[in-house]
Amino acid sequence: MRKNLLLSSLLLCAATSMWGQPAFANENWVGTWKLNAAKSTFGSAAVTRTEMLKFEATAAGIKLTSEGTDPQGKAMLGEYTSKFDGKDVVWTGNPSADMACPKRIDDNSYENVWKNRGKPMMTARVVVSNHNKTLTVTQTPTDPQGAAAGSVAVYDRQ
After folding, report:
1. Which domains does the chain have, with CATH numbers?
2. Structure pTM?
């Protein structure tokens, strides 16, 4: 009887653990990505020198951590956690935005509206290639004068 109870308890724990996993693991952008500056095009001189993006599936959603250096070589660190449902979340460490509004399109892509004090500042479309080795971020920002200054950043999976 004790063996059956123990076995049943273990199976229940295993099943609960599997069901409790976030559905975010299917998103192909989960993982670590390194900026490939040679394949990227930037609409302004103010670009990062290096950057790593790390997407992690957590119980609260997908956590994005961005680490790199700015054009002057100063270290940068930004992050947010989102369910990628189109709802605003706090974005720390981003000098251009204090909120992110990422929305999943499919397993390979999502769109993110960057906001600062409630005002949309940029739309970024993020797409993972069919071979899952390249992540492309197409950004359509609006600078303070209102002119679009877009860029395409290409990242390689690490």
Report:
1. 23-157 (2.40.128.20)
2. 0.79
